[in-house]
Amino acid sequence: MEDWLAKSEKSQGRRLFEEIGMNSSQLLQLLESVAEGSQSPDSALEKLRTFQVENLGFAEVDHHRQLRNGFSEVVYCEGKTPEQVAEIFTALNRETPNASLLGTRANAAHYKAVKRDLDGCDYCEASKCLYLDQTEEEKLKGDVLLVSAGTTDRPVLLEAAHTARLTGSRIQVMEDLGVAGLQRIVSRHERLIKARVIVVAAGMEAALPTVVAGLVSCPVIGIPTSVGYGTSFGGVTALLGMLNSCASNLCCVNIDAGFRAGYLASLINQSK
Fold it and tell me: Which pTM was predicted?
């Protein structure tokens, strides 16, 4: 029954893709209408923004996410089978072969399955990021600085770092600069003030983001991590500390949400 349902949905998805997707004849017709003057470039762009959703039977793959948002659809791998993740990556790469791809919360089995089809993909075990990095070093922009309070915050910080780089930002990572040794962060003041955006990952009482924000004029994005003992409440204490910070240039994302922080930092970094 499940196999039949999957095949049925997939075939329907292909028909839907053919009907609303951007196949070569539709693309040619659209371009010709712009060349003839019967349609404006702006109007054509709006049509392009709404094209191409591919139904794989278990997932709706958004092939125009890059056009609308600036980066390909990011795959949240946790809860998906290795085969499902591989099929999504393959579909994304087929439609945008030169684009970088990212999967978060991935495991070694996901990586092995994707690697069979996309040999160029890589996996960071610490951050659980699965990615195909096709960024060109000379085209990376700006300066995103990523700072962790402690070594235990590293997995979350690296998720943010991979995200920021893959979305086109030049990055630097500095680790283990928590306020228990305040001289560690103060001694980096000259580097801090050069950044366009700073991401700070901290658990426990999460004082570091406020300290960093008080030293710089750029936006600071805090990531509360689930690091700490009993009353850290799995990162809730860190989250509340950042939300109640007196530093006006500090905002924060969800607990352990390295991807969200890296993505937002990259958007801010590349804004004009």
Answer: 0.80
